[in-house]
Amino acid sequence: MPERLSDFVTYELIDGVAVIRTDNPPVNALGNDVRAGLFAGMERFDADPQAKIALIHCEGRTFHAGADITEFGTKRKDPQISALCDRIEAAGKPVVATLHGTALGGGLEVAIAAHWRIAQAGSKVGLPEVHLGVIPAAGGTQRAPRLMGAAQALEAITSGRHIPVEEARDLGLVDEIDASGDPLAAGLAYARRLVAEGKGVRRSGEMTVPDATPELFAQWRERAVKQGRGLHAVLYCVEAVEACTLPIAEGLKRETEVSDKSHADPQRDAMVHAFFGERAVAKIPEAKAAPRPLAAIGVVGGGTMGAGIAAAALQSGLSVVMVERDAEALARGEANLRRNFASSVAKGRMSQGDLDALLESRWTGAADYGALKDADLVIEAVFETMAVKKEVFAKLDAVMREGAVLATNTSYLDVNEIAAVTRRPQDVLGLHFFSPAHIMRLLEVVVGDKTAPEVVATGFALAKRMGKIAVRAGVCDGFIGNRILGAYLKAADMMVEDGASPYEIDAAVRSFGYPMGPFEMGDLAGLDIGWLDRRGKDAARDPAERYAEGFLDRMYENGWLGQKTGMGFYDYSGGGRSGPPNPGVLPMIEAERRRLGINARAFPPEEILRRYIAAMVNEAAKVVEEGIALRPLDVDMTAIAGYGHPRWRGGPMHHADAVGLARILADLRDLAQEDPGFWAPAPLLERLVAEGRRFADLNAPAAG
Ligand code: NAI
């Protein structure tokens, strides 16, 4: 009979093997009770004269998947995971861990503190702490390099990636793989074999790390700076792993010091906010509605977005019908679609034959809307013109089956107006994908006045199926993301007119942690898009408003449309996706300033960022106040998943809270003296500051 060590952990002697078993569903998280039970198990094992070897095993679907996230932010009871791992390693007789499922973070640290490891085929291991802004702190940074070498450990720990166990065996993290699907039986057999072969205690802490040279760490520090784009945690990881040349006790002490530093870093709060925010965005008023079935989807338009959406759907196992205007446009659509798989083919992840077979079995192209009659959901991705959208939706209304979901990928247009041309506005919503749609993680689910709850839930279900982050948005010009983008781009354009160069602005924005600045982004998207948008809005111009668009119109008139014409704010004539500044741009901007009678003044980087961020936060506050975004965290996840906002800053609202809302408000009041129309502070911001509250206080879960 098993002896109970704690609520979730038992001890049982089976043929001389002390089985220390955890049964804490769903993922055997290393909570207070489990840690106490495992620690007691090691004590019991060392004192048990009949036990020759111990086996750490978990019931259910996985080995310890990691720390217990419900204990997040609470003070954990002793023993901590680190003390538990030290105790396991110190055992006087051999200890085996038998892994299955996903052994991540603390789970893997427990496993590598044991002396031997066997794992079920198909399981995964990893040290993902870097994603929360911290480092593995229960010996992971010291024991992993001793088992797999410093270079491999640096790669695993700084990337935080999930490593297939077959690869982990080749790297030395795992000793044996078993494919029986029975981790207990396999662990017992392995333990008996080890005893029979006279294999004893083998402490990873006593191993050395031959490849841990100063050059290696210098190289990785450089790499971490480049790849982390301002994220400190990658550097903390390198710093901790570097201590693996010290005796283990000293290395562990060093690991604790670096870990404490990472926990005190405000970046950690931002990363934790992003981690939980990605889950919290699914808490929407419609969460309890049952999504409609999703097997076959239709895509209207095979351009940039239609082909990307089709690729995303095929990758997630759905069937796709693509409808284009005529046979010629359809052929281009198919070519666009195939191009989206080109890098997978080039990298050997799929063969040309696999791609052909995939399209053959689950893709249909048509120039006739009738082909959509059996689709469960259709996404329209045609030209961004209301008249065209209305024409398409009238046709969809005529052919789609009852109960099908009708979605538009529009970036800016009024979803209610589009829905109104159908007899079923309750089935219509916006599904705003980002380019490239098969790669970008964000999906804005735009809810119209009449959209039914199940239809919203279906949009979220589609995102989940595609591995995307869905954010619920209300209807307005640009929804959450593009509307806020419009505000900070305008701040940037005004600075250019007033004296900043596009290159100074791009550099300042990159220094904040964005992968690119607004003018590099314009070059990438194509400067004709903004020009078309401005011409569409010409009729509605407010003579009292400042537009700051002359230099952008000149770019268009010069044919400098960005990467696609080889020339934009930057010169791409050398090929590739970056290049030196276009030498014609600054003289053109100076001429434009003269035309407007503006005396250029200097904008230091701090001033550029002060304005850029103030414009962003102010518009975001309006978006929350108007209910376009449910909560500040929805804005944050939109900015991170779709607009390159640095994750380690947690999104514009989290960043504003961290800086202090009073500071942002003071900046806005100051700027409003210059141009009250643009910079007047959002009432929500005024109110929060007056009440001494923060955006985070508005992040309570929406009803669901
Ligand atoms: P695109 O110009 O690359 O493709 C549009 C496609 O629609 C063309 O292939 C055209 O032949 C087809 N089309 C036009 N009228 C049609 C009709 N009546 N029936 C069937 N097909 C028709 O445009 P893109 O960039 O793919 O944009 C499509 C939509 O996605 C627009 O509403 C745009 O605002 C939106 N969007 C674009 C993003 C981007 O970065 N390009 C990002 C997010 C949304």
From TrEMBL:
Residues 297-473 form the 3-hydroxyacyl-CoA dehydrogenase NAD binding domain. Keywords: Fatty acid metabolism, Isomerase, Lipid degradation, Lipid metabolism, Lyase, Multifunctional enzyme, NAD, Oxidoreductase, Peroxisome. It catalyses: a (3S)-3-hydroxyacyl-CoA + NAD(+) = a 3-oxoacyl-CoA + NADH + H(+). Its main location: other. GO terms for biological process: fatty acid beta-oxidation. GO terms for molecular function: (3S)-3-hydroxyacyl-CoA dehydrogenase (NAD+) activity; enoyl-CoA hydratase activity; isomerase activity; NAD+ binding. Residues 478-572, 609-693 form the 3-hydroxyacyl-CoA dehydrogenase C-terminal domain. The keyword Lyase applies. Pathway: Lipid metabolism; fatty acid beta-oxidation. PANTHER family: 3-HYDROXYACYL-COA DEHYDROGENASE-RELATED, 3-HYDROXYACYL-COA DEHYROGENASE. This is 3-hydroxyacyl-CoA dehydrogenase. It comes from Albimonas pacifica. The lineage of its organism: Bacteria, Pseudomonadati, Pseudomonadota, Alphaproteobacteria, Rhodobacterales.
